[in-house]
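2024-03-11 09:14:02 DEBUG pipeline.ingest accepted 1 chain
2024-03-11 09:14:02 DEBUG pipeline.ingest length=415
2024-03-11 09:14:03 DEBUG pipeline.predict start
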Amino acid sequence: MSRLHCRTRSLTLVASLALALTATLLPATSQTPAAGSPLTRTAAAPGGERWNADLSVVDRDDVNVRRTAAGLRLREARPAGRSPRSAVAEGMLLSAPRTLSRPATRVRAQVSADVPAGATVEAQVRGWRVSGWTEWRTATAGAVFDHPVSRVQSRVVLTAPTGGATATVRAVQLTADTAAVVAEATPGLTYRVYATRIGLVGQQTANGRTVQPRDHFVALPSRRSLSPLNSGDYSVRVCTTSGSRCEYAPVWDVGPWNTRDDYWNPSAVRENWKILGQGRPEAQAAYQSGFNGGRDQFGRTVLNPAAVDLADGTFWDGLQLTTNAWVDVAYLWTGGGLRGVVGDGPLTIRTGASTSYPSRGLAARFANVPIQCYVTGQSVTGPYGTTTRWDRLATGQYVSHAYISVVYGGVVPVC
């Protein structure tokens, strides 16, 4: 299959993202336990609400993990994708969300595991607030949220060198309590980055999806913003630099090049390469300025500055690109306000409240889209009824409400 660039693809490292999704709680710290030693991270905080992550159920939301009598392990100690470029084997277990008895601002994880040399175990959590899910946060030292959260979901991510021994996770205990909040990130972060085409039809993404022809999703180089399978908890708006075409799409894979480069976050939050300015991807710095010796996190020579990968449908149909290009990406979970979920798609975005208006792009199924307000327009029948309501996503961008499965965060006002 043709590919327009050399990728460090999490499609191979897909399993890793999927793992991160699947494994409910997983600390993304840089701490590495001594080889062959048992691992117990971060004692639970005194007080607070405690529970144990359920490691016994492995289902379709989980990637490359299995339950054994000894504990949770990687199913295959080799990359799950087809690409030979993957540096490690990865897996992920995603736990069911837990509704807290009272809102909390901090969640800590205590992980009990045996970790052989070269293997890693991470526990991560995310919290539900009125505008949707937060990013996944490392829970080992305590994940702190800028607003109280009412629900918590955890995941466990395992990695092992190709063909090497895998860690065995016996238990993950979580504690939710209150702590001083951190400064809230600037809402609606948008950066101009270089985009490449994913291709890889028939292969598996980091969250466990089999890539379809002309599929609609994106990949970002950090599992912190990886959506679970068939969800758009983390979605982006990708637009051509002219603004003439945009697509709203869920983040379903990790890559290109790196898997721990949440470059949209400030240095205090950014997982790796904190020295780089906020909004500057490591691959771009490596390619343009020789940062890190011109190499990615796996030591590979960076051959292009790509910081977002677009599935074929997003690339060709949504943005109508013909080659790799610079694009403007809005990381929608960093914003606030009302969100609607596209229940069927890809849904055409119109310049006005009628199908007679020109198309401005697409909104992929499952994408979480911002809704500013609504206007009355052409009557449309869709999967969620017949309505004359058209939701405005941005200036000059409207979609029929007949295709929006749910709106959360409040009541949509009239424009």
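2024-03-11 09:14:41 DEBUG pipeline.report Helices lie at 14-22, 282-289, 312-318.
2024-03-11 09:14:41 DEBUG pipeline.predict end
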